[in-house]
Amino acid sequence: MYEKEILRKKIMDLRSKMSTEEVSQKSERIIENIQNFHIFKNAHTVLFFAPHHQEPDILPLAEKYMQNKTLCFPRVMSVPLGILEAFSVSSITDLIPGNFGILEPPEIEVCHVAPENIDMILVPALAIDQRGNRLGYGKGFFDRFLIRTNALAIGVIFSSFVFPKIPSTFHDVPLAGIITENGFLKI
What is the pLDDT of residue 110? Predict the structure, then answer.
C-alpha cells in the first residue's frame, strides 16, 4: 500500500503541472479516439466520468452523444462503504458537485442504471499499466463497481501516465484496454 501512496503523490504532482492548454489538446485527441473506437460506436449504454484533478475531459463527447445513447455517470452512494452507482442524465448540466468535489448525477431512482445494463465503461485513473492494472485515488470505488458488471472497462488517460507496471493487489480489477491521445491499447 505504501508504494501506491508514493506513486499517487508523484502522479498527482506531475498532473498538476500540466497546462490547461495541454489537457485540452490531449483531451480532444482522446475524444477523437473514443469516437472512432468500434465498441463505443456500437454501445447503447456508456458510463462516462467527469474530470477531476487534470483528468482527460471527455464531457464534450458525452454532450455530443446524449441523444443517441444512454449516457450515465457514477455517483458515490456511500463513502464509508465505497459504493458507486450509475445514473443516466439527459444533459451535462444535470451533473452537480458531489463527494470529493467531482461532478455526478443527482440520485433519481428512475434514472438508476443497473451495472449489468451498461455496455462500456470509460474509467478514470491516475495511472494504468500495460497489463490493465489501474491506480486510482485509493478508495476502491471503481473496483467494487467493475466486479458487478460485464461491461467493457476502458481506461481513459494521458499517455504519459501509462507505465510498464504499477503495483496492484488482489482486489484491483484490471481493465480491458486503454485509450490515450495516441490511440487504443488492448490488454
Answer: 80
